[in-house]
TrEMBL record:
Highest taxon of source: Bacteria
Pfam families: Dynamin_N
GO molecular function: GTP binding; GTPase activity
Protein name: Dynamin N-terminal domain-containing protein
Organism whose genome encodes this protein: Catenuloplanes indicus
Low complexity biased stretches: 530-546
Domain Dynamin N-terminal: 42-158
Main subcellular location: membrane
Annotated stretches, region: Disordered: 507-561
Length: 561
């Protein structure tokens, strides 16, 4: 269960109001209450063949989702924590059919149920990665043009089930259903973002309404960056600037764009590289530099040219690492012949960019789970209140929600809603004010919000009051009605922040709950070293320790700076 003061209070609201509602409304509130007990649900969405399943395997820490096209890759698959590995095919009528995983631990390519009858596949795994995160793999965008079916709507939570948002012509209806039912979203794309990608993301956002469609709760994954350059050369000097460009294009639909080499991430995180693979790489690294360069010139040369390593072994290395990963590994062995397999895997993980993604997920999702799920639940209850058939149900729900939102600690949820309206472009603010509001919505850490990490308690309190005054002046001095509403929320947020700092000496917020960790308090290893000279034989490696300022997570501003 997600433990936190915000979710606990919403759960209490559901327990209090549920028995007083009509049977239909009570069941819908119960469904919201149950979701509060579940891990944060993150959907992985994107175009077909974008590498979604490969990234899902990296996130789960096991190679369980097939990456080759088959029946099982055309349906929504949910991965969650369980005490035993298990696979259930959930039919559209709600019934379940249990199927064994393959001996390799992967989902079978054939599920034994007609595809059109499958709502989703429910997989439970004994992976600690899934204790606080449920991952939903979607089949991606297709050429269908259908509305969300009644069976797909059953997969949604009650508030989304009432959505009448139109679907894009290129969206798979089950994928839309899965994304709509999530609290956060990872959008996967390769190469340059296309106009139809942006349209698809906007459609996902529209059906997700105020929930997973919030740009603050969405991250773009720029996958397969190792394909940007030829011959296994270092892709990061190209991937870094491209990711920044993509972040600018997508700033209204995602909070950040993270570049990643998905295959390399899957191989390292799922433990696929064996000791025999490492020895084969060590053997190849022992060849002359000229011979290595010839081998790495193309996939065909790497597989077919005569060398001490068998063709079958080289084909396996390509399937695990591709040319970039192989070239990177050869550079490490050439630089340090005695390198152990464990150290090589660690370096390959850094080279994949996955360490940065994992840290970004922590900052953007895991450390804000309490607020994300509470906001999701209240939005669901508000939607129920607007659609309940009985007037008494509507009044009971609205009164209960308003009582909760009047509590000071719940102003964070109003801040999240205000930040969403700004980051999505619905309300336009000056860039600096947008940045300030986003920081205020993400955490209760005053030093990070105010960008004053060395300030005293009194300095922080004064700065928070000054910010509150700026927002109040903005609200009454020429702002549009929509801007004024956002400004009033920000004004109260900074005023409460000043109270928190003075009343709790920066140790605890007014509500008595521990402050939400600010991103700069949890610095990851630096992200891939953009700008290094390309080529697989460079002694350095992407992600090597660097001097200089820490790389901070900056939603809406292209990520790390």
């Amino acid at each position: 269960m997600v433990q936190g003061p915000l979710t606990n209070r919403v759960a209490a609201l559901c327990d209090e109001v549920g028995p007083r509602l009509s049977p239909v409304s009570a069941q819908q509130v119960l469904a919201v209450r149950r979701r509060l007990d579940e891990a944060l649900r993150v959907a992985v969405a994107g175009r077909l063949k974008a590498g979604k399943s490969t990234l899902v395997n990296a996130l789960v820490g096991r190679r369980v989702a097939p990456t080759a096209v088959g029946e099982c890759t055309r349906v929504v698959t949910q991965f969650r924590y369980g005490t035993a590995d298990r696979l259930d095919v959930v039919r559209r009528d709600g019934s379940r059919v249990s199927r064994p995983l393959e001996e390799s631990g992967m989902i079978p390519m054939q599920l034994g149920v007609p595809r059109e009858d499958i709502a989703f596949v429910d997989v439970t795994l004994t992976s600690d990665r899934l204790r606080d995160l449920t991952v939903v793999d979607t089949p991606g965008l297709s050429s269908t043009n259908q509305s969300i079916s009644a069976a797909s709507s059953a997969y949604l939570t009650p508030d989304q089930a009432t959505s009448d948002a139109p679907l894009d012509d290129d969206l798979d209806d089950d994928s839309v259903a899965a994304v709509s039912g999530a609290e956060a979203v990872l959008y996967v794309f390769t190469q340059a973002v296309r106009a139809d990608d942006i349209a698809a993301l906007s459609t996902f956002q529209s059906v997700s309404a105020r929930l997973s469609g919030n740009p603050i709760n969405s991250i773009g994954l720029f996958n397969k960056v190792d394909k940007l350059v030829a011959g296994g050369a270092d892709p990061w000097p190209v991937a870094g600037p491209l990711a920044s460009d993509q972040a600018g294009v997508l700033r209204r639909v995602v909070s950040e764009v993270v570049p990643i080499a998905g295959l390399l991430a899957e191989t390292t995180e799922a433990g696929r590289l064996t000791a025999a693979d490492c020895e084969a790489l060590r053997t190849l690294a022992g060849l002359s530099q000229t011979e290595r360069m010839v081998l790495m010139a193309s996939v065909d040369l790497f597989i077919n040219r005569d060398c001490p390593v068998s063709k079958a072994q080289r084909e396996r290395l390509l399937s695990l690492l591709d040319l970039y990963g192989i070239g990177f590994a050869l550079a490490q062995f050439a630089n340090k012949p005695e390198l152990g397999s464990g150290e090589l895997v660690r370096l390959l993980l850094q080279a994949s960019g996955f360490a940065r993604l994992r840290n970004t997920l922590d900052q953007a999702f895991r450390w804000r789970t309490d607020a994300i799920k509470a906001a999701w639940a209240l939005s669901s209850l508000e939607r129920l209140a607007g659609h309940a058939a009985a007037q008494q149900d509507r009044e009971l729900l609205r009164d209960a929600i308003e009582r909760v939102l009047q509590q000071p600690e719940y102003h964070r949820l109003r801040l999240l809603e205000a930040a969403q309206s700004v980051t999505s472009g619905a309300v336009v603010l000056p860039e600096q004010m947008e940045r300030e509001l986003t920081r205020l919505a993400l955490t209760t850490d005053a030093a990070w919000i105010l960008e004053m990490p060395q300030a005293s308690v009194e300095q922080l309190a004064q700065a928070a009051l000054a910010a509150a005054n700026r927002w109040r002046v903005f609200a009454v001095a020429g702002a549009s009605p929509a801007q004024a509403r956002v400004a009033q929320v920000a004004h109260r947020g900074f005023f409460l922040l000043a109270q928190q700092v003075r009343g709790q000496n920066s140790a605890h917020p007014v509500s008595g709950a521990a402050p939400v960790a600010a991103p700069w308090q949890h610095q990851p290893p630096p992200p891939p070293g953009y700008g290094r000279a390309p080529g697989p034989y460079t002694p350095g490696y992407p992600g090597a320790p660097q001097s200089g300022p820490p790389h901070q997570y900056r939603p809406g501003h292209g990520g790390y700076r």
